[in-house]
Design a protein that fits this description.
The complex is a heterodimer.
Chain A lengths: L1 E6 L2 E6 L6 H7 L18 E4 L2 E4 L12 E3 L5 H13 L9 H14 L5 H7 L11 H11 L3
Parallel strand pairs in A: 1-5
Antiparallel strand pairs in A: 1-2, 3-4, 3-5
Chain B lengths: L12 H5 L6 H4 L5 E7 L5 E7 L1 H4 L4 E5 L30 E2 L5 E7 L2 H10 L1 E6 L36 E9 L2 H7 L2 E7 L13 E6 L5 E5 L4 H12 L6 E4 L16 H11 L3 E4 L2 H6 L6 E10 L5 E13 L5 H10 L10 E10 L13 H19 L3 H8 L20 H12 L1 H4 L2 E5 L2 E11 L9 E8 L5 E5 L8 H13 L6 E5 L16 H28 L6 E4 L2 E4 L5 E3 H9 L8 E7 L7 E11 L5 E11 L6 H21 L28 E6 L22 H13 L10 H10 L1
Parallel strand pairs in B: 1-12, 10-11, 14-15, 19-20, 26-27
Antiparallel strand pairs in B: 1-5, 2-4, 2-6, 3-5, 7-15, 8-13, 9-10, 9-12, 13-14, 16-17, 17-25, 18-19, 18-24, 21-22, 22-23, 25-26
Classes of the chains: A alpha+beta, B alpha+beta.
Protein name (chain B): Molybdopterin-dependent oxidoreductase
Keywords (chain B): Molybdenum, Oxidoreductase
InterPro entries (chain A): 2Fe-2S-bd, 2Fe-2S-bd_dom_sf, 2Fe-2S_ferredoxin-like_sf, 2Fe-2S_ferredoxin-type, Beta-grasp_dom_sf, Diverse_Oxidoreductases
């Protein structure tokens, strides 16, 4: 089936199977920042934006992306790099496998929450798992990024 | 120092954070066959028939392989230096399946859907046998997990296959039983640290193809490229010269990727079909068909005299290695090796251990490697001892720990070269507020807060076994290329090894190109495990860089017409000490490498150590326990670390915070569980709970640097030691809070609640 969507500000027409998930479709079209790691909608690695809201692309059928605006980290080079620089300066990317999805969640949080408290930050990002860092370095980076350090 | 000791960002940091295509799957050829594995539904069974005809005939299926199609050479998936201590006890596919998830058939097809459809069409008949599920019943069980005649070991490891004993270990100095009789206080208890899953975010995966020379190339998410090469050669029965293993960026390992996973299956498909093949374990396979931490039973007995000096230690260990013996003897040995040297006022020490086969997923290497289990048991018992002696738990440690220049009873005369453990304990006490908070205080609403502590050590590399080589050369353009076999798996070793080289060569890091983890081009390195990289590979990089520096000075002096002692490094050039002449590295490169020079300057070194100097940590936990429900909240965790000189403070801190979080998971949340037929009950993140950012409280790290005389710039290791203190420290804090001493990990609210009912 064909879907028409906007991916990182570019309109595309893609053939997708009825049972195909968006994360797989995105990867097959070269958006390799999108990672999958859990198969059960738990880890947050596949986080992208649909119409500006973060969502798990492993759990959304590609058909549902028809006529939607999808954003991956490849579409936000400037904004993502600003935060990635801070994250990396803390050493808090470590293996980096969860970083793109995590960064997409952080950027969405910045758009959604005004002056979030530490508790609100932690709550917003709970769905982004990381096994390397223990989360402390990520929190330090977010505070610097939001200017609440 | 300009580079060493600086928090320099990882050289690959921005690429991986921004999602650039640098991991195994990203690099695979789009036409690679998809490899899937049919796995056993039974814990212990013999395949009596296997019919693949309906699957093979499916369009798009490239090949289906069963036990009839694999080489008949047993091997181990453990990534260890040759000769591997782990038994050669597995085939790529075997007629006997030994756990739920064991491999039955390999399916290769043009796409995943076809492969999965083909899998459903394979008909297998099994003769089901009685499995060994309880590791405490394994010795003497009527079922023998490995009855086969052709199982072999490279050397004696105490294997008795008819008794399901994989390996045995015994060490004894002095007369332990006599010494206990002389002790004023003797305490003992039994501990059950659980199987823990690594859950690295990038699951196991490998991509294989044949290159222009017909060699098998494996791009693998591994910590041990050279070991994977040797493993593939043995398993596939092809010469090692026909294999190249490349490690790209790795999405975490934690020891899991020190054991081979899908490489042999993809490799076999590529050899059989001549086509590229890709295997990706899904999360369920990663949980249920790879390895976990060894579950153990540890009995610890401690005796002390009136003044609180620990005089006798007895440790008896039973380790569950599961269906195959990957890392069984070495993890077992490390339980004692990385705990007993902590305390050296002893007069008698005994360690006795056995690892046993069961019909469950194999255990393997996991950050801490036996030290984690041993630390939980020993340190919990030391806390009991302190209570019996009415001593502060920090005081009994300070009284008994090994000091610099001292030996320990089982240490065969090896002297401790560096330690600031006493300062770590003092600093940790201060940071957690021990004096005010120990042991407990009521905070209202039925809640109580308490603190607990533990200390730990690990090694740095494997003494007399671990070696690493490094090569660094001056390139034709005046830059440098550092070649190392060390495997950065997110830990940052590509960066810290360049920091070391840059420090020696007095050049900015951007002048150094790092190329690592490729068995065709890297000098030999066993890989990143056993807390080796900074200490052993770092040592090799320092030596190689010094050799190159020496050669640069000598050549520059010759060109400038002065004696070697009359020149020195100055920026990107060598100049005479008098300052009147200089030659840039670029010019030196031009004159030596190009044209008439005919001499590329290369530094090369192999490093291996006779000692494995221990890093130390003092860990302190503060918990809040709800006395009505047993719920435990971790409020604060303080870890003060002696890893020698800290090469890169930010990367060391992240290593520590991440390791502590894994230790917190082990203490409170995580457990690999099986149902009554031996099927894993925790094969997704829905059942197996790793800590989320809400579950780790506050983790604070501080360093108390020592200077290790044998280490590069005085450095020791940090990668593993960080996982060890949370289970005993948190358990201690919970005991201090509500009086429940729970020795079965993890300490869930249910166990705390039930424990409180029994008080």
């Amino acid at each position: 089936m064909q879907i028409e969507l906007t991916i990182n500000d570019k309109v595309v027409k893609w053939e997708v199977a009825n049972d195909e998930f968006l994360a797989d479709t995105l990867r097959s079209h070269g958006f390799l920042s999108v990672k999958k790691a859990c198969d059960t909608s738990c880890c947050g690695l596949c986080t992208v934006w649909m119409d500006g809201k973060s969502m798990l692309s492993c759990s959304v059928l590609s058909l549902r992306a028809h006529s939607k605006k999808i954003t991956t980290i490849e579409g936000l080079p400037k904004e993502a790099e600003e935060f990635a620089q801070i994250l990396s300066a803390e050493g808090a990317e470590q293996c980096g496998f969860c970083s793109p999805g995590f960064i997409m969640s952080v950027l969405a949080m910045k758009n959604e929450l005004v002056n979030p408290t530490e508790e609100e930050i932690i709550h917003y990002l709970t769905g982004n798992l990381c096994r390397c860092t223990g989360y402390m370095g990520q929190l330090r980076a977010i505070k610097i990024y939001l200017g609440v350090a | 120092m300009e580079n060493v000791g600086q928090s320099i960002r990882k050289i690959d940091g921005m690429a991986i954070a921004m999602g650039k295509p640098v991991y195994t799957e990203d690099l695979a050829m789009p036409n690679a066959l998809v490899v899937k594995i049919l796995r056993s539904p039974h814990a212990f069974a013999k395949i009596t028939s296997i019919d693949i005809s309906n699957a093979e005939s499916l369009e798009g299926v490239e090949c289906i392989l069963t036990f009839k199609d694999v080489p008949n050479a047993r091997f181990t998936l453990a990534g260890q230096s040759y000769p591997e201590p782990s038994p050669y006890d597995r085939l790529i596919l075997d007629q006997i399946v030994r756990y739920v998830g064991d491999e039955v058939a390999i399916i290769a097809a043009v796409d995943e859907k076809t492969a999965l459809l083909a899998m459903k069409r394979i008909k297998v008949k099994y003769e089901v046998m009685e499995p060994v599920l309880d590791f405490e019943q394994a010795i003497g069980h009527p079922s023998v997990v490995h009855p086969e005649e052709d199982l072999s070991c490279n050397f004696e490891i105490g294997l008795q296959k008819e008794n399901n004993i994989t390996s045995s270990s015994h060490e004894e100095v002095g007369d332990v039983d006599e010494e206990f009789k002389r002790c004023a206080v003797v305490v003992e208890d039994v501990y059950y640290p659980q199987a823990q899953a690594h859950t690295m975010m990038e699951t196991y995966r490998a991509f294989t193809y044949l290159d222009h020379a017909g060699r098998l190339i494996a791009v693998s998410s591994t910590q041990v490229p050279f070991h994977i090469k040797r493993q593939l050669a043995r398993a596939l029965q092809i010469p090692a010269s026909k294999i190249r293993v490349i490690k790209p960026r790795i999405g975490g390992g934690f020891g899991g990727k020190q054991t081979g996973a899908g490489d042999v299956f993809a490799g076999l498909v590529t050899l059989k079909t001549g086509k590229p093949a890709m295997i990706i374990y899904d999360r369920k396979e990663t949980f249920s068909a790879t390895t976990s931490r060894h579950a153990m039973r540890l009995k610890v007995k401690l005796g002390a005299d009136q003044e609180g000096f620990i005089r006798a230690i007895d440790m008896q260990v039973l380790s569950d290695t599961g269906a195959y013996g990957e890392h069984a003897p070495t993890v077992l040995g490390c339980v004692g090796h990385y705990t007993l040297p902590l305390y050296n006022k002893t007069r008698a020490v005994r360690f006795d251990g056995k690892a046993v086969y069961t019909n469950k997923m194999p255990a393997g290497a996991f950050r801490g490697y036996g030290a984690t289990q041993g630390t939980f048991a020993l340190e919990s018992t030391v806390n009991m001892l302190a209570e019996q002696l009415k001593m502060d738990p920090t005081e009994i440690r300070l009284k008994n720990i090994s000091k610099v220049g001292e030996t320990f009873l089982t240490g065969q005369g090896v002297m401790l070269g560096s330690s600031t453990l006493d300062r770590c304990i003092a600093k940790g006490k201060e940071l957690i507020g021990w004096e005010e908070k120990f042991p407990r205080r009521e905070v209202g609403y039925n809640k109580v807060r308490a603190v607990g502590m533990a200390i730990t050590m690990q090694g740095s590399g494997i003494a007399n076994i671990g070696t690493a080589s490094a090569e660094i050369r001056l390139n034709d353009d005046g830059n440098f290329t550092l070649l190392t076999g060390a495997t950065d798996m997110g830990t940052g070793c590509d960066t810290i090894l360049s920091q070391m080289a840059a420090e020696i060569l007095e050049v900015p890091m951007e002048k150094i190109i790092v190329h690592a983890g490729d068995t065709d081009t890297s000098p030999y390195d066993p890989g990143s495990y056993a807390s080796s990289t900074t200490y052993v590979a770092g040592g090799a990089v320092v030596k190689a860089s010094e050799e190159l520096k020496h050669k640069i000075l000598a050549q520059s002096a010759a060109i400038l017409g002065v004696a070697p002692q009359d020149v020195e490094f100055d920026g990107l050039a060598v100049r005479t000490i008098s300052g009147d002449q200089e030659i840039s590295f670029a010019k030196l490169a031009e004159l030596t490498i190009l044209g008439t020079g005919k001499l590329q300057l290369v530094g090369y070194a192999t490093q291996g150590c006779e000692v494995s100097p221990p890093p130390y940590i003092a860990g302190f936990a503060e918990v809040e326990v709800d006395q009505e429900t047993g719920k435990v909240d971790l409020i604060d965790y303080v870890a003060v670390i002696d890893c020698g000189t800290v090469i890169n403070p930010n990367l060391a801190r992240i290593q520590a915070e991440g390791g502590i979080a894994q230790g917190i998971g082990m203490a409170l949340y995580e457990q690999v569980r099986y149902d009554e037929i031996g099927k894993m009950a925790t094969n997704s993140f829905m059942q197996y709970k790793i800590p989320s950012r809400k579950d780790v409280g506050k983790v604070r790290i501080a360093f108390e640097e020592s200077y290790e005389p044998t280490g590069p710039f005085g450095a020791k290791s940090i990668g593993e030691v960080v996982a060890n203190t949370p289970p005993p420290a948190i358990s201690h804090a919970i005991y201090n809070a509500v009086g429940v001493r729970e020795n079965h990990l993890p300490i869930t609210p249910e166990k705390v609640f039930l424990g409180m009912q029994k008080l």
